[in-house]
Design goal:
single chain, globular, disordered N terminus
Length: 150
């Protein structure tokens, strides 16, 4: 086997090579009416979303392909990676309200039916502590790889 490229952000080669294997793509249905709203949200991103996108964009985060403002079911995920079954949400202040919290729980329950994991970070956390946000995502990747023997 020939190794190409370089190690991504310090992970061992075996982790980086995982992306070369073609995995069957999981199809998650979505409400097509959300496409226009998703496009608008991509253009009106919060500072936290912009900062995290700079880290995830272009397969630069360990070679994984993340999508921003991705419609899934009847929702729009802030960030989604099909290869990792991962959704990343950045919660602003409005998520502190009980009504929003209950809706988030319902949303998570529906998405978990598709074996998706949701990592949540606050807007402030992403703005002020990016190192630990990225460390948490790295930890998820390591667990996912170990669990799925990929």
């Amino acid at each position: 086997m020939e190794l190409r490229g370089s190690r991504s952000k310090g992970l061992p080669w075996r982790v980086c090579l995982i992306n070369y294997a073609k995995m069957p793509r999981k199809i998650i249905p979505y409400n097509s009416k959300l496409k226009q709203l998703a496009r608008k949200l991509r253009n009106d991103s919060t500072l936290g979303e912009v900062l995290l996108w700079k880290e995830l964009n272009g397969k630069q985060f360990y070679g994984y392909d993340f999508h921003r403002q991705k419609p899934l079911l009847n929702y729009i995920a802030d960030f989604y990676c099909n290869e990792l079954d991962l959704i990343i949400e950045i919660d602003g202040r409005y998520h502190d309200h009980i009504e929003t919290y209950e809706l988030d729980l319902q949303r998570e329950a529906e998405l978990k039916k598709y074996d998706l994991t949701i990592l949540r970070f606050s807007e402030q956390e992403v703005r002020k502590d990016m190192v630990n946000v990225l460390r948490t995502i790295e930890g998820y990747i390591a667990e996912y790889i170990e669990k799925n023997n990929r």
